[in-house]
Design a protein that fits this description.
The chain is an alpha/beta fold. Helices cover about 45% and strands about 10% of the residues.
């Protein structure tokens, strides 16, 4: 009979407990047996609490193995012994080694230990989400060895001991693991999928161990099934699941392969004959249901239907979901159906239970929301309705209908003035007055910057003092006047520091900003904010995306006072910082009742007003960050053009109201730029800064081969790690960058904002960065003199 299931749960905890435990562990220095055990015990308590709450909400197959200290792809690398050589001989504990792979490790020598200095592994966006995963790295002769005590097996035993009746182990699939991985520098040129036969042996052993532990079904996540795959990947999927299904059958275990974030299309036929159950995402791709039903109708394949949105925060329209589900029931019957969220609920906040402010101040909005705990309940309600009939949940259905209707008819979601402004946009609004060559001439004259100009991406460290002051101000314990005085003192600190280290283009440091999206959301109509709507972005880094519930417009100038004050403190050019329209949309929980293009046009118009006001205030450089523009790219290539036709113009809409001598910057990170190079060129930013330090310069090759003509700042060092690179290391890196970018177009900067770093490492790294720029300027001067 149909069952209520889940693919994954927010492992960070109801109140980000895991983040706090992990960061306490890091802060303690070299791990001790006591600190390690404290962290492991805290994690075990969290897992038990999460399993319990899912069971209480009615989930009948509870996922285990979805928990991670840092990242599940990193866990998979460790699980199968795919640990790059530079991390193997650190003389560190297993947890030290693990975290070194994720975030780097720099530790001075002691009387008994050698110096440790290793960078973090590469990090990329997980499909089209704002979650970052650690990219597996493989040697051509890579060997795999299953961990002596696999965590997923231990967690299964934990769940059973905690009283969970039907735990379902969750694994990253072997083809996704290899396909999203990369060859090491020493082994470049081979196809990582060639390692599949070796890897499958370890997966087979793991299946055997899980079966021995008592598992009846194993969930294997293969999200690459929703991508446009080459023939080699499709053949790898066929080979992998022929082998895994045979192994599972021998041990009386069923395999459920989970796809999510898109549609299967022809990839369905690579696996459907060698799996027992298949999960499909009917939120992102409801249109695939008919195709999948037709393909599996004559088989015994069980279908897991992802009808509850695992990535957004709106209540499910239960009646609409039931209509969709009845189509599946009529085709294959109840016995072959599982219900689930569309994807892991790790992409969703924990529970609306803690949103007391919204409940009190905006009960209408509160009634529209559903977080992870509530989504589990929605899955259970839909399951009961299918099993026992809609009358069995009639009260819940009626309350749900009222909430859905309330949102549809609310006067708070529509702004006639905003919609009129969108209608009035014309083609000229999307273009600068002059081409880049003419603009650059005007900007060179105005800014008078040296060769290899130095800058940062925007934020400086958000210290404990800043967080405490913001919290006290929000609670009314610090007056507006005293808080503004504090913020001004922090701005002055940032300016004086930049003068001391001799940067060329300054930023004000953003001490007043809690988050690059949430901060601006507070200054725009159409946004709402949660108290506890945290989701993991990478490692222990959590973000609290705002909620776009209505039409968006600017309330008043958003950044003018802070940036004017900063500029008054120095004669160096100041760079204002804004978050671009696509990123404001993508990194929020957006409304789903209007097109994304409409949301971004509204935000673009609001930002345009701010950009024009910044120019009028005398600010010479304005950075509008769009790190999410590549992330928003649809997963299927045939859908790209439709997206790029509105997303890139929305960026231009926000910045094209200024004079030629105002320099427009943008920042992008963790992107495969070769996929959308023409679109990036079409953004027509005067300066683009990009993540580069974790990407082995491969992102830059496309800029060179495509003859990118505007200015570019490839990140010289990784800000996601506390590690401070030496001057010599950065000199080598910049020398390599010069092979791709002409020196008169090259900027020198970190690869992202410095908000998450501490001041000591920030000061050390930026002093080294400036020294590197001066080294290359002196070389250029010597060459010119000669």
């Amino acid at each position: 009979m149909v069952q209520a299931t889940n693919l994954g749960f927010p492992y960070v905890g109801a109140h980000r407990e895991l983040k706090k435990h992990v960061e306490t562990f890091w802060a303690s220095g070299a791990p001790t047996q006591e600190s390690t055990q404290t962290l492991r015990d805290a994690a075990a308590d969290l897992r038990k609490a999460h399993w319990r709450v899912q069971v209480e909400q009615g989930i009948e197959q509870v996922p285990v193995g979805d928990f991670t200290f840092y990242d599940r792809m990193l866990d998979t690398s460790v699980l199968f012994g795919a640990i790059p050589k530079k991390y193997q001989d650190l003389g560190a504990s297993s947890l030290d080694q693990y975290f070194a792979m994720g975030r780097g490790l720099q530790r001075a020598a002691t009387a008994t230990t050698a110096k440790i200095d290793v960078p973090a592994m590469e990090m990329k966006k997980w499909f089209d989400t704002n979650y970052h995963f650690i990219v597996p790295e493989f040697e051509e002769n890579q060997e795999f060895a299953l961990a002596e005590t696999p965590a997923v097996v231990s967690h299964y035993h934990e769940a059973k001991a905690a009283g969970v009746a039907n735990p379902r182990p969750v694994l990253i699939g072997p083809v996704t693991f290899l396909y999203l991985g990369k060859a090491s520098k020493a082994s470049s040129g081979f196809d990582t999928l060639d390692l599949l036969p070796k890897l499958l042996k370890s997966y087979g052993t793991l299946i055997q161990q899980l079966a021995a532990a008592g598992a009846s079904t194993i969930q294997v996540d293969e999200p690459i099934l929703v991508l446009d795959l080459p023939v080699t990947a499709k053949l790898a999927l066929e080979k992998a699941y022929a082998a895994l299904h045979k192994s599972a059958s021998e041990h009386s275990v069923k395999l459920l392969v989970a796809s999510y974030f898109g549609r299967l299309d022809s990839n369905l036929f690579c696996i459907k004959d060698n799996v027992d159950a298949l999960h499909i995402d009917l939120v992102k791709a409801p249109e695939q249901l008919d195709v999948v039903l037709d393909a599996i109708a004559s088989s015994n394949l069980v279908l897991s239907l992802g009808v509850v949105d695992g990535r957004n925060i709106w209540k499910n329209n239960l009646r609409a979901s039931l209509q969709l589900l009845q189509k599946a029931v009529s085709k294959i019957g109840l016995d072959r159906i599982l219900l689930a969220p569309s994807c892991s609920l790790a992409h969703s906040p924990y529970s609306i239970e803690f949103e007391t402010e919204i409940r009190k101040s905006n009960p209408e909005l509160y009634d529209w929301l559903s977080f992870a705990v509530e989504k589990c309940r929605e899955v259970a309600v839909l399951t009961k309705a299918l099993r026992e009939g809609e009358d069995s949940v009639s009260d819940v259905l009626q309350a749900n209908e009222r909430a859905i209707l309330s949102r549809k008819e609310s006067k708070h979601t529509t702004d006639a003035e905003v919609r009129q402004k969108v209608e009035a946009i014309n083609e000229a609004d999307y273009h600068r007055h002059s081409v880049f060559a003419q603009r650059r001439e005007a900007q060179v004259k105005r800014l008078n910057l040296p060769l290899y100009p130095t800058t940062t991406i925007g934020s400086f460290p958000q210290t404990k003092e800043i967080r405490v002051a913001r919290n006290r101000h929000n609670k009314g314990l610090l007056s507006d006047e005293d808080y503004q005085a504090f913020i001004r003192s922090e701005i002055e600190r940032a300016v004086r520091f930049q003068e001391e280290v001799d940067l060329d283009v300054f930023v004000h440091g953003e001490p007043e900003r809690n988050d690059m999206v949430e901060h601006f959301g507070h200054l725009l109509h159409g946004y709402a904010f949660t108290q506890n709507g945290w989701v993991v972005s990478y490692g222990s880094r959590c973000v609290k995306p705002p909620v776009i519930f209505g039409d968006v417009r600017r309330k008043q100038p958003m950044t003018i006072e802070e940036i004017k004050y900063a500029q008054s403190l120095t004669s160096k050019p100041m760079k204002a910082m804004l978050t671009g329209p696509v990123t404001m949309w993508k990194w929020s929980f957006p409304r789903d009742d209007v097109p994304a293009s409409t949301i971004c046009q509204q935000i673009g118009l609001a930002l345009r007003d701010e950009v024009v006001d910044l120019e009028a205030a005398g600010i010479p450089c304005i950075q509008v960050d769009e790190p999410a523009i590549r992330e928003g790219l649809p997963l299927r290539r045939q859908d790209w053009d439709a997206y790029l036709k509105w997303s890139v113009p929305c960026f231009r809409l926000s910045v094209c109201g200024v004079r030629d001598d105002t320099q427009i910057h943008t920042h992008m990170c963790y992107s495969d730029f070769n996929d959308i190079f023409d679109a990036i060129q079409d953004m027509d930013a005067d300066v683009i800064t990009i993540e580069n330090s974790k990407s082995d310069e491969k992102l830059l090759k496309v800029f060179a081969t495509k003859n990118y003509t505007n200015e570019i700042g490839p990140g010289l060092y990784d800000i996601h790690s506390p590690r401070v690179p030496s001057v010599e290391e950065m000199i080598q890196r910049l020398q390599a960058l010069k092979q791709h970018i002409p020196e008169h177009l090259l900027w020198v900067n970190p690869d992202c904002g410095l908000k998450s770093r501490g001041w000591p490492e920030t000061e050390a790294a930026l002093r080294n960065l400036v020294a590197v720029a001066k080294h290359f300027r002196s070389q250029a001067s010597a060459t010119f003199s000669a």
